């Protein structure tokens, strides 16, 4: 089943164990670059301490939170630690430090030698990895349920007692640099995505790449990484999520034992970095060795800030989510039919994404690859023509019903995985959303009308809200040849 997004727009990178600005295999680099988008909010006053599926929320003695989701269909469990810190919390000059710290968390504690963490999880019959985005950092292990205490002991230890020699940093920073080269500098569309975000945003820290600028990686020191850990890795900025074949009371007791006694401190004040109003169309061209051109349109749109007591802008954000699904949320959706089919298709592929959730500004993205004999300008014109068509003619009730039905079906399907359940709960927590945010969101999406979708198509897609990036292909013989990723690369 084709699905262009997860309902809360946060999980594209996690399911693949990706950790920087990389989404699930095969997805657009723009989806990865925009895997988040809207200010952090405290959980609503009516935040339930349990959801319809049985998840429960607790606060440990030191302020750390715990979410437990029992699911007894298989003897496995997923253990995750999410921190409400990502690349948007960095300062200029140390871009990429959140992601580098994630790498270094695997390099030892005061009692665990470098590399032993992963070896011990594997010996338990488990698998593990981590991920970093603009909004959050997370670590996970999937293990046999009876091994939960073992990974809690390991994870809580490195959370509080990260310790490694400078020589480990010197080796690992080279791994991160090579990751940047392989995943951004040598990938034309990823390079374009990086430049698009740097152009779209002025004040917002979303302008910086998650992996960091190369000059900042070159200048980074072990002290930079340790200082970031001291600032942000505190129980008051984290949640433990456990889903699977577990008993709630036992998990709570284990969490208090291994996490509840960790020392805590207040997180640094998060000062607002409000993106100023855009005052005209922005356009960039990116030259890189490539076989095909590529065009990306990024429109500034409102964020989804809550899933109860909605404001007008929240309903607009939901209507934009529906619009994106109408455009490219299923096989044979509008963009596919209009741009890639017929006797003379203008594009080989085309898509859209409504990145309406997160801790920073939101974007509506449209992308396309010109068909043979067609230009990027023709694709750009065709994408904008489809927007104008919806603004003029609206969408059909059949299209609306189809995307709503697909959301319901795919949400049910995703819940078959305890990994997906844990991810959903962790991403809701990062947003400050209640435990039952997915149920609330589905209910709200059912109320979005075709008229609301037409209204947002007419409201948010003018030149003053738009940044356009075009990839200008250069000869492939200019492309650099690189070896396989360095040993030890986690992603």
Automatic annotation (TrEMBL):
Record keywords, A-Z: Signal
Keyword presence, Magnesium: no
Domain Peptidase M16 N-terminal: 69-211
One Gene Ontology term of the molecular function aspect: metalloendopeptidase activity
One Pfam family this sequence matches: Peptidase_M16_C
Domain Peptidase M16 C-terminal: 220-406
Cofactor list: Zn(2+)
Signal peptide: 1-18
GO biological process, one term: proteolysis
InterPro entries: Metalloenz_LuxS/M16, MPP/UQCRC_Complex, Pept_M16_N, Pept_M16_Zn_BS, Peptidase_M16_C
Xref: Gene3D superfamilies: Metalloenzyme, LuxS/M16 peptidase-like (3.30.830.10)
Presence of the UniProt keyword Signal in the record: yes
Stated family: Belongs to the peptidase M16 family.
UniProt protein name: Peptidase M16
Organism encoding this protein: Acidovorax temperans
């Amino acid at each position: 089943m084709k699905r262009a997004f997860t309902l809360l727009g946060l999980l594209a990178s996690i399911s693949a164990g990706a950790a920087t600005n990389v989404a699930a295999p095969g997805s657009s680099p723009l989806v990865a670059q925009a895997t988040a988008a809207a200010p952090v909010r405290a959980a609503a006053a009516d935040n339930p301490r349990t959801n319809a599926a049985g998840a429960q929320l607790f606060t440990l003695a030191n302020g750390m939170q715990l979410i437990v989701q029992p699911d007894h269909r298989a003897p496995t469990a997923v253990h995750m630690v999410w921190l409400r810190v990502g690349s948007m919390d960095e300062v200029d000059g140390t871009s990429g430090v959140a992601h580098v710290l994630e790498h270094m968390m695997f390099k030892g504690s005061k009692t665990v030698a470098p590399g032993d963490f992963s070896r011990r999880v594997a010996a338990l019959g488990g698998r593990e990895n981590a991920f970093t985005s603009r909004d959050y950092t997370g670590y996970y292990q999937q293990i046999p349920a009876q091994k939960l205490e073992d990974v809690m002991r390991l994870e809580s230890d490195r959370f509080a007692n990260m310790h490694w020699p400078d020589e480990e940093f010197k080796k690992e920073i080279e791994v991160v640099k090579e990751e940047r080269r392989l995943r951004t500098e040598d990938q034309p569309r990823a390079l374009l995505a990086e430049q698009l975000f740097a152009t779209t945003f002025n004040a917002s820290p979303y302008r910086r790449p998650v992996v960091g600028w190369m000059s900042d990686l070159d200048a980074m020191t072990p002290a930079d990484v340790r200082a970031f850990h001291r600032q942000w890795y505190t129980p008051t900025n984290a949640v433990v999520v456990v889903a699977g074949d577990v008993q709630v009371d036992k998990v709570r007791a284990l969490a208090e034992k291994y996490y509840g006694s960790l020392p805590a401190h207040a997180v640094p004040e998060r000062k607002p970095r409000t993106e100023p109003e855009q005052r005209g169309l922005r356009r960039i061209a990116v030259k890189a060795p490539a076989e095909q051109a590529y065009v990306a349109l990024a429109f500034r749109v409102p964020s989804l800030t809550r899933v109860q007591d909605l404001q007008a802008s929240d309903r607009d954000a939901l209507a934009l989510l529906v619009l994106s699904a109408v455009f490219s949320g299923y096989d044979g959706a509008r963009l596919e039919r209009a741009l890639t089919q017929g006797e003379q298709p203008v594009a080989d592929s085309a898509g859209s994404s409504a990145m309406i959730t997160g801790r920073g500004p939101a974007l509506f993205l449209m992308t396309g690859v010109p068909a043979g004999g067609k230009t990027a300008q023709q694709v750009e014109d065709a994408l904008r023509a489809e927007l104008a068509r919806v603004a003029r003619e609206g969408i059909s009730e059949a299209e609306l019903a189809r995307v709503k039905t697909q959301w319901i079906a795919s949400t049910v399907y995703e819940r078959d995985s305890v990994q997906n359940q844990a991810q959903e709960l962790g991403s809701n927590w990062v947003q400050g959303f209640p435990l039952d945010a997915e149920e609330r969101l589905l209910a709200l999406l059912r109320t979005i009308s075709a008229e609301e979708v037409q209204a947002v198509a007419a409201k948010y897609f003018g030149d003053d809200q738009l940044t356009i990036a075009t990839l200008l292909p250069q000869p492939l013989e200019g492309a650099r040849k690189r070896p396989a990723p360095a040993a030890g690369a986690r992603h």
